[in-house]
Each structure stands twice: as C-alpha cells, then as structure tokens.
Amino acid sequence: MLDLRVQAGLSQEELADKAGLSVRTIRELEAGRVARPRKDSVRLLAEGLGLRDGDALQFLAAAGHATVRPVIAVADAAPSGLRWRGTRPIPDGLVGRDDELAEIETLLRQNRLVTLVGPGGVGKTELALAAADRVSSVDTAVVVVDLTTVQRDAAVPSAILDAFGTAPGTSDLDDVLSGRKPGDLVIVEDNAEHVLDGVATVANRMVRSFPGIGVLVTSRIPLGLPDEVVRRVQVLGVPANDKDLDEIASSPAVEMFCRRAARVRPDFALTAENAATVARLCQRLDGLPLALELAAARAGSLSVETILAALDDRFRLLSGPRRFGAPHQRTLADTIAWSVDALSDPARQLLYRASMLGSPFTLDAVVGVCTGEPIDALDVPMLLAELVDKSLLQPVHEFEALYGARYKMLETIREHAYAGLSSQGSDLVEFKDRTVTWCSTYVEGLDGAWSSPDRERRYRAANANSATFEVALERASALGDWDTAAAIVLGFRIAWQYQASLAESGIQWASVCAENVQDKEVSGRLLAIAGRLSNLTGDVRAARRYYGEARNLISPSSEMGLMARGGWVSSGSLLLDTVSLAEIPTLVEDAIKHGDVQRSATVQAICGLALARWGRLPEAKELLLAWEAALVNPGVYPDEIAYMALSRVELELGNLAEARRWAELARDSQASDDPERTKVAGCLAMVEFQAGRFELAQALIDEADADIRGHRGYFDYLVMLYRSRLARRTGDLEQARSSIRDAVNRLLLEGRVVYLLDVMPEAVAVLHGLGQHEQADALCGQLLAWQRTMDPPMLPTAWAVLQESCESAPVAQGWPLPDPAEAARHMADDLLAALS
Q1: Residue 635, pLDDT score
Q2: Rounded to whole angstroms, how far apart are CA atoms 19 and 83?
Q3: Which of 49, 288, 322, 700 is the most exposed place for a label (fewest CB within 10 A)?
Q4: b/e for 383-410, b at 16 or more Cβ within 10 A?
Q5: What whole-number distance in Å separates Cα of residue 580 and Cα of residue 455?
Q6: Which residues form the HTH cro/C1-type domain (predicted)?
Q7: pLDDT at 270 > cutoff 50
C-alpha cells in the first residue's frame, strides 16, 4: 500500500482525508501491524488511491477479501463485561427534559430506530446519551459513535467499528453485529447530518438484518427510513414574562443558565433583583441550550446586564470559550453556519429572505415576498419543508386550524440569516420594499371581509401574518410614507383583535400613524382603532381617551364614527361614567338610520352590554335581542360575546333555562381551538353554579382557569370570582382568598371598576369565613350604602351574596360620594389590604 500511496503522490494525512479514515489506521496498515484489514477500510483506501476496476479488485484480494470468511464471534470484538463504549452523559447535563427523556426511553424500548432531530445546539446529544443511559443495563450494552470527524458516507461503517474498540484488522461490521439477542445492544450515532446517506444505509441494514440491535441517531435532518421514529428536540421553555419571580424561577432555560453560571461564579443565584434581566436574556436566546451555556460562561467576567446588552452582537459574545464537543459547535456562529452552509442555494436564499419577514410567518408571505431568482414560487413549499427537515425552521402547530400553516425561526438563526441577506448588496432593501407592497395588496383583499361568510378564516389568516405586517409598517414609517402605513393599519385593524397579545402593536401603529397623517378623518379612524385594541388589552382608560379623541374627528354617522361612539359608551360604562349612558338612545337611532344592518346590530349589542353592566337588565335584553334578531340578515353573524351577555342578563333575571340556552349558543359559535376559550367556559360555569350543579361548574372553571394561564382573556375576573365561590363552598378559604385578590388586582389594573361590584360582595363572605369580621363588616356597610344611594346598583347575584353575609353590618355614613369610580377603587384598596 505504501508504494501505491507514493505513486499517487499522497501523504498519510492526505490519504486519510480522501479515504475518510484515521491517520492511525493508515500508519498501522503501512507498518504491517494489521494482518487482515477490514473490507470497508480496504474499499475506502482503493477509492482514496484512485484505483479502478481490476486494480481495485486486485487490491481487495491482496488484503484477503477475495473469499468469504467465517463470522467472528461478538465476544472477540470487545472485552467481555464492558457495557458502555464511548462518550458518557455529562452529570447534571439535562435541565427541564424529564418528560422528553421518559418518552425517548420508552421509544427506545419499543422501536428499533429512533432519530432525535433539532437545530444545532438544542441539546440532542445530551438527551440521547441520557436516554441510552436509562436503557443500559447488565443485559443491554451501549456503543456511542461520534460521527463529527467522519468526512464520507462510505466511512460510517469504519467509524462504528472504531467505536466498538476493534483493531484495524477486525473484519466487517456484520461480523460484530451478528449473534446479538434482542435488546442486547443500543448504538448511538451522534451528529449524523453531514453523512446522512451513510448513516441511513447502515441503520437500515442494522434494523432489518440484526434484530438484537437498537439504533438511536442524533441529526439535524431525519434519515427518511420507513422504520424510523422521529422526535424533534425543542428548545428549553423560557419565562412568559419578566415580572413573576415564581414563573421565572420555574423556567427550564433560566434554571440551566443559573446552573451553568454558578460553575464559573459560585456566588451566582437567581434573585428578585436579577430575575427580570435573566428572564429577558433567556428569552433573547430562545432557550437554546448551547447559547445559554456560552452566555453563562461569560458570567465569570461580565454581569448579566452586560451580557444581555451585548446580545445585539451575539455571535461575537458567544464565540467561546467552549473547548469540548464537536468543532462546529464550539461557537454559536459555527453551529448555525454548519447547517446553513450545507443548504442548496435556493434553500439558503429562502432562509435569508424569510429572516426579514418577522416570526412567525406564513407560506403566503414567503410566496408573496421572497420569490425570484433562484427561488421559483412553485418550489417554495418544497424548500420550506427542506428548511424544516434541516431544523432551520420550526412549524407552528398551535392554533393551526385557526391561523393556517406558519413557521418560526429561532432568533439566533434569524440573526445569522439576516446578516447573510444584508451582505448581499441591496437585497435587504429590495425585500423590505416588497413586504410593504405585499401587505398593502393583502389588506385591499380584506375589504368587505367583515360581512363575508368566511370572515373568521380571512381575519385569522391575516392575523397569522402579524409579524410580517410589523416589518412592512416599520419600513413604511422609515420612508415617511404615512399614508401607506395608515392604509395598512386600517385594512389590518380587525386581524389585530383576534389576539390580545398582538393588539399592543396595533395600538402603537394606529396612534403613531394618527399623529403623522394629514387627513383628520383618517386620523380619527386610526384613533378609533387604537381605542378598540386598548379595550381588548384591558386598558380601559386608554380606550376611553382614544375613543374620545376619535369622536371629535370623525363624522358621527359614518361607520367608523358609530364605532368610535359605541366604544366611548362601552368604555365609559366600565369606568362608571354616567355621561356615556346618556348617548345610548341617540347612538342606537343613528345606527339604525345608517342603513347597514350589520353595523346597526353591532351598535345595539355594544349598548346592550353597557346597559347590562349598569344593571338596566330589561333595556339591555331588548337591545341584545334586537342584535339576535338581525342574525337572519346576510353579513350579520353569531358572536359569542353577545350570546354571553344575553346569558348573563337572563341569569340575573332568574331565567336559568334561557341563560343556559344562550351560553350553549355562545359555546357553539366559538371556534373549537379559539385561544380565548376562557370566555365561554366561564359563562357556562356561572349558569351551572346558579343551578346547583357544582361539580360541573368546577370542571368548567378548571377548564377556563387553564386557559387563563396561557392567554389573558377579557372575562378572567368571572373565572376567579366563581373559583372563589366554589372554594368557599368546600371550605377552601385560602383558595377563595387568593382568587378574590387576583380578581380585584386584575380589575384595578385594567380600570374596569364596574365589575368590582360583582366581586366585592364575595370578598365580604370570604373575610367572614377567614374570621376577619371587622374588616368584612366595614366593607359590607359601604356596599349597603352604595346599593341605597349610588348608581349603578349591584346585580342580583352579587346582592344575594352580600345579603347572606351581612345580616348585622351597619350602613356606612357619608354616602353618596361624588365620584363613583373613585369610591369603588377606594373600597377595593381597603379590601386588598384586608386580604393580604
């Protein structure tokens, strides 16, 4: 072999590189220390030396592979009794992976081939090693194959044999694998994506021909085999906010960062002072374990605040000092580049262009903005699938039926791809301008959607593009093109209403555009949108302000003028402002004169809700039934909020059967996977509670409460109120105290003071139950005075609770008070002090 290498003009290192073998193997073969080299190794050497046909066969024969040889026993391949070969899992290497680890252990015990896929740095290797460790035992051996340095598909069998610890003279892989009993061996093939064909070929042979062997693969790309079970490894969960210390501390990403930071700075710990910064740091890093680890390594010399501030150039900050692991995973930039560099040019360009769409984004946005040489529109679905398969994009399955197919890009990957797009001359500017054009055209297609039979689908599909619209608005504002920005906001306005978490962006853009457009009518319409969205996010005071400004700019009888006036009435009723109610008769009359049945019905429903809050139940019912009667007209569609209002009115009037009927209609009109299921479940719970069906009411409250944790809803206070009533009934006074305190805090924060009159009578009962009779009687006396002298009165269900709890409390003196809203807030503050 030495002569052949010299004739080829290759050094040992060059031949090793060409053949995909180690330099050690070349050296030992040439020194004559290997009597019978592996057949796979000889074949690779022949290819590396450039031997063809007869020369290659002669080379194989000279190495002793011209005839069939006997199978070598498994015991000969490795010392007996050795049950683990290769890299062991790092102690304490996994954080927040208990459920995934248990699932993968189960999969390994039930399946022959399991592949863990995910983006670079997500923790596939540690998860695989920990799962293999769980299944290893006296009867099950584990062999870990690190494929990082393997350069060719054909070299995969040799790498596996090396992992078994066999000498270069050991025979073929089949010799080592034969004779295994079922469950005897698990082979972990780590970092397989760059030699995927080789790994797939060997894995397929293993699971089809050797029933005693299980295979666990880690890769950024699935193998694509029929027997393969694929599990995507997700990033670690990050805190939903940076304010709740308990929620921050329970985040797996935060836990991992703190553990790793403590290794380089022993006194590091999560505290009330640094929790918000740590939470934002973990959010910025997407919960990506490698990024968290590299950032934590900086905690020995930098403060957490400095690390967070430096994340604008994260690839420079997170460039080390990792000294172990695969070479392409020692810096964050190398990890991402490893995957991106392996893409085809169209896929890479699509990744670059999609990076400026915001996240998540839709297939429609990609086709509309990102196509053009070298990307054909017809190829986009295939290219997106390639990026998902290679773990550079993640499909968003949450609410898929509502919002359609969406994709998200980890911020770390997005930053890398965005830099790639920015480096390509004027491409970044071109595609941002194309985003403005696409969004402008898109909102034109929404014109009239409110009256169309498929309005839910159209608006939710638009909502799915919220991040892309943000990009378009930023670009239009940077150009000073406020008319275009305003047109986009006006066209997109309804889509923002479907998720309160996104409405904040709509408020910002509506108010900014209102300040910059020249047309006063347009400005007023934009302010009305800001008011509507503020109401949805719970900021009633801001809604009132925006609606008030809009009323002075828009024609009062126009569609948007009616909307602004309706919003002003609605927000006023929440703030206990009697001036608002005086406008209801004129507003309803103007809406009917407007001639649009849909607009008239909407205004009557809004006014009905306002009157219901004010305790004017027969008048509220009349307007709400007028809305319900209008449903027979084209363009007027069921709305769960109005149905719920009718249910509440009937409940307060004592008509339980009708209340249940309206609540069930609300449930039937709500999308099955609406992110704000809280509303209807809470409404049904109220009916069942008043009917004495407490177990069913509890189940519905539990369902609604689970929604509150993930999605803030407009009627959450009712869920908290009825949780207290149910808890008090079973004697769980601490739960009742907590629920009432949460409800009062929520209503004070949002300014919806009218609903405090629903909650405070229950609070009196809770205080009595806790033995705090003095505080309970003081609050009760104030509420009794309110009921006699103030407007609006408490609703019948709240009044009944107060009467049960306040048999002997004296009526407070000095009422009525000049400012009802201030009086309600003052009582609520005293209540919170008593409940603390």
Answers
A1: 77
A2: 30
A3: 322
A4: bbebbbbbbbbbebeebeebbbebbbbb
A5: 30
A6: 1-57
A7: yes
Q: Nearest 10 degrees: CA dihedral of 395, 400, 403, 405?
A: 40
Distance CA 539, CA 769 (A): 33
Contact (Cβ atoms closer than 8 angstroms) between residue 786 and residue 754: no
Is the bond leading into 816 cis (omega within 30 degrees of zero)? yes
Residue 640: which residues within 8 A CB-CB, separation 6 or more? 666, 667, 669, 670, 679, 680
The phi, psi pair for 649, rounded to 5°, reads -60, -45
DSSP state of 492: H
Q: What's the rounded Cα separation, in Å, for the pair 765 and 727?
A: 12
**404 touches 362 (CB < 8 A):** yes
569: its two tokens: 């009435």
Closest CA to 89 of 192, 194, 216: 216
CB count within 10 Å of CB 833 equals 9
CA dist list (Å): 107 to 50, 102, 191, 205, 580: 43, 9, 20, 20, 62
pTM score: 0.72
Cis ω for the linkage preceding 792 (within 30 of 0): yes
How far apart, in whole angstroms, are the C-alpha atoms of residue 770 and residue 775?
A: 11
Mean pLDDT over 404-423 rounds to 87
Structural element, H or E, at residue 185: strand 185-190
User: Dihedral, CA atoms, 602, 608, 610, 615, nearest 10 degrees?
Assistant: -170
- The gap between the terminal CA atoms of the chain, to the nearest Å, is 85
DSSP 3-state percent helix, strand, coil across the chain (nearest 5) = 65, 5, 30
Can you tell me whether residue 281 is helix, strand or coil? helix
Q: What are the pLDDT digits (tens) for 237-253?
A: 999 888 888 889 999 99
d(CA 142, CA 200): 19
Q: What percent of the chain shows pLDDT beyond 70? A: 87
304 near 281, Cβ under 8 Å?
Answer: yes
- Residue 70 token pair: 């006997």
Q: Considering only CA atoms, which of 357, 438, 365 is closest in space to residue 403?
A: 365
Nearest to 669 by CA among 642, 698, 634, 700: 642
Contact assessment for residue 195 and residue 160, using Cβ atoms and an 8 Å cutoff: no
d(CA 610, CA 608): 5
125 near 240, Cβ under 8 Å? Answer: no
Task: Indicate the length of the chain as a whole number.
Answer: 836
CB 682 within 8 A of CB 666: no
Sort strands 394-396 and 406-408 into parallel, antiparallel or unpaired: antiparallel
Reported as type and span, the H/E element at residue 187 is strand 185-190
195-237: pLDDT as tens digits: 899 999 999 988 888 888 899 999 988 999 998 999 999 999 9
Spatial contact of 489 and 528, defined as CB atoms under 8 Å apart: no
